[in-house]
Design goal:
The chain is an alpha/beta fold. The protein is built from twelve helices and twelve strands. Strands 4-3-5-12-6 form a five-stranded mixed β-sheet, with helices on both faces.
């Protein structure tokens, strides 16, 4: 391997190339890298000269990569990951004095139920750090990790990238939330006969509870589907509607005294809430420190139940 070829390279150009491969749109690349569109266009022209290939062909509003670009990307992306790790080793991470910004993906049930205690702990350990929370779900988390929009994700997980790592934070136990107080929890018959509000990020009218009921030969009546858990308190208030949701979110909503949390009326599988990240950040002290603080700050009262 001739390392003299590296003398021709400009790391900034490589970053532009990688971002173009991920975004496929010059405008999006400019926004993501905080550069002007003319700068991105100029960088693309230099890349084309360097690799003696068009690299990207405009198709409508998208820039589709050539076969040569795809081949370059396969080699370049892991190389940039390794370079990023190597550069990060030149400095230590001190959470008490750091002013870095961390981008964390959370599903909205986690944001509502678990972010407040987490934030109180992090404010003690990292008072100057900025945390930017982006809404994610298990359908989107892989894309957001790969694109670099988030560094760490906290949600249920499915179909993670091959280079993803996962840390179990706690088990999720389903609970029922209702607005009408009762001395006794719902029976399965009452649960099936009551009208339900379903939270679905993809506008479905069935969810995990419907799959579990079907295994018992039962069904329920979903009369409303909404995209986020945070709307439930206002929707349930003063009605006979009920909702099924993670125990920690139900507990946080019931804390106001206007709603009531009760156990699920039948035995259901426990789900897992995990923290996920890509393996290339393992050697990055700030990101490793952030991940460690997230796990520690929740403490035994919330994590790993």
């Amino acid at each position: 391997m001739n390392r003299n070829e590296l003398r021709k390279a400009d790391i900034n150009l490589m970053v532009v190339f990688e971002t173009l491969m991920l975004e496929r749109n010059v405008t999006n690349v400019a926004k993501k890298l905080f550069l002007g569109q003319p700068t991105i266009s100029s960088a693309l022209n230099r890349l084309r000269t360097m690799f003696n290939d068009p690299l990207f062909i405009r198709v409508g509003h998208r820039m589709e990569p050539t076969a040569r670009a795809e081949e370059i990307f396969r080699h370049l992306s892991p190389a940039l990951d390794s370079l990023s790790v190597a550069l990060s080793l030149t400095h230590d991470f001190d959470p008490s004095s750091s002013t870095m910004t961390f981008r964390i993906g959370m599903s909205d049930d986690v944001e509502f139920g678990l972010l407040p205690p987490l934030l109180r702990a992090l404010r003690q350990e990292a008072p100057k750090v900025v945390f930017v929370v982006q809404n994610v779900d298990h359908w989107r988390i892989s894309d957001l990790l790969v694109s670099g929009d988030i560094t760490v994700g906290i949600t249920q997980t499915r179909g993670l990238p091959a280079n993803a790592k996962r840390k179990l934070l706690r088990h999720i136990y389903p609970a029922v939330l209702r607005a009408d107080a009762s001395d006794t929890p719902l029976t399965i018959d009452e649960y099936c006969s009551r009208p339900h509000v379903l939270v679905s990020h993809i506008a479905n009218v069935s969810g995990f509870a419907d799959e579990w009921l079907a295994q018992l030969g039962r069904s329920r009546q979903v009369v409303l589907s909404v995209p986020q858990y945070s709307s439930l308190p206002a929707l349930l208030a003063g009605t006979d509607l009920i909702a099924s949701l993670p125990d920690y979110a139900a507990e946080a909503m019931a804390a106001s005294g206007q709603l009531y949390k009760e156990p699920f009326p039948f035995k259901a599988p426990t789900l897992e809430l995990s923290m996920v990240w890509l393996s290339h950040v393992d050697g990055d002290p700030p990101n490793v420190g952030c991940a460690h603080d997230l796990k520690r700050s929740w403490g035994s009262a919330i994590c790993c139940r």
